[in-house]
Amino acid sequence: MKHPEGNLADSTRSFDGTTPLAREIAENTRRRRAIAAQSLPLPPEPRIFTVANQKGGVGKTTTTVNLAAALAREGARVLVIDLDPQGNASTALGVEHRADTPSVYDVIINDVPMIEVVQKSPESEQLYCLPATIHLAGAEIELVSLVAREQRLRTALDTFLDTFPDQFHYVFIDCPPSLGLLTINAFVAAKEVLIPIQCEYYALEGLSQLLSNIQLIERHLNPDLAVSTILLTMYDARTNLANQVVKDVRDHFPEQVLRTLIPRSVRISEAPSYGQTVISYDANSPGSLSYLEAAGEIAHRGAPE
Ligand SMILES: Nc1ncnc2c1ncn2[C@@H]1O[C@H](COP(=O)(O)OP(=O)(O)OP(=O)(O)O)[C@@H](O)[C@H]1O
Ligand SMILES: [Mg+2]
After folding, report:
1. Interatomic CA distance for residues 44 and 268, integer angstroms
2. What is the average pLDDT across 187-207?
3. Does ligand 1 lie within 6 Å of residue 159's CB atom?
4. Residue 262 Cβ contacting ligand 1 at under 6 Å
5. What does pLDDT average to over the chain?
6. CA 233–ligand 1 middle distance (angstroms)
7. Does residue 58's CB lie within 6 angstroms of at least one atom of ligand 1?
8. Which residues are CB-neighbours of 46 under 8 A, at least 6 positions away?
9. What is the predicted pLDDT for the residue at 16?
10. How close is the Cα of 52 to the center of ligand 1, in Å?
11. Tens digit of pLDDT for each residue in 130-153?
12. Is the CB of 62 under 6 A from ligand 1?
């Protein structure tokens, strides 16, 4: 007669004799080794991304800070521009952003040079942040009466990149969840748009409005702008719905969607409360590995022609 515990153990074994947990550990080890072995090409010119989706809470900020940290860890010099009055990217990167801190508001409204405002993130020697403070909440209205109101961030960024003593490889602009003048400034300053899409029911709603706004910007304000990258976030493999969203988005945007999916992960959501990205908070967690893999894909694909 079989021992009952033996039966229980047998039931968790697959036909190749490994348990699901053992398989997961082996898979994580394989991914860690592949990441450790990868060497990422650096772009010859700075690649400037706007991370945008007018839908709130889809992972814009999480994607911005974690991709930036992943690329910095791989040797790139990276700047994050926090263009959201909520200041979440500044928090996650551990940079000062109290109300009296010089910030992106002073740059776009008062013409303060960016070089006087940019801070280095404690996360990495290679990672910089232009912080946002609460003052930015009023900028949307103040911008309306300013000259060249759509170009202000671009002018400041171009000057900064030309005059900074070292070359930057990547710039990520974290946008607020709206399509107002701040987001327009980001589209005008960037060359590439990265759209994070949450793997949930309403994922594709609002996307056509975002894409038609980007087309308008391309036609009238920035002919160099292209939606180069779509990243699926908060993926939960156990739900049919998430898999359906992945399929729909891949069918619609076969060129732009990264192979890497960002899983829903508690470690990812905890990291900002320690003023850290998941890359430094828990480097070997599945969420961290996914952002490192996504960074690898972005680097290897290069900028669009
Ligand atoms: N992969 C993930 N797994 C678990 N939680 C996540 C993940 N990505 C993001 N989150 C959490 O979801 C919430 C929204 O994420 P995030 O702030 O990045 O979205 P957002 O698009 O920047 O939001 P907003 O539109 O308000 O700026 C946050 O609490 C974040 O910690
Ligand atoms: Mg955000």
Report:
1. 31
2. 93
3. no
4. yes
5. 93
6. 9
7. yes
8. 161, 167, 168, 169, 170, 171
9. 57
10. 13
11. 999 999 999 999 999 999 999 999
12. yes
Contact 199, 238 (CB under 8 A): no
Q: Which residue in the block uniquely carries the two structure tokens 């999916």? A: 261
- Distance, CA 57 to ligand 2 centroid (Å)? 7
Q: Of the bound ligands, which one is closest to the alpha carbon of residue 290?
A: 1
Question: What distance in angstroms lies between residue 55's CA and the mean position of ligand 2's atoms?
Answer: 10
Domain layout of the chain by residue ranges: 42-300
Mean pLDDT of 123-129: 97
Instruction: Please tell me the number of the ligand nearest to residue 63's CA.
Output: 1
CB 208 within 8 A of CB 202: no
Architecture of domain 42-300: 3-Layer(aba) Sandwich (3.40)
CB atoms within 10 A of CB 59: 21
DSSP per position, 87-124: -HHHHHTT----TTS--HHHHHHH---GGGT-EE-TT-
Q: Residues 57-107: pLDDT tens digits?
A: 999 999 999 999 999 999 999 999 999 999 999 999 999 999 999 999 999
| C-beta of residue 170 within 8 angstroms of C-beta of residue 68 | yes
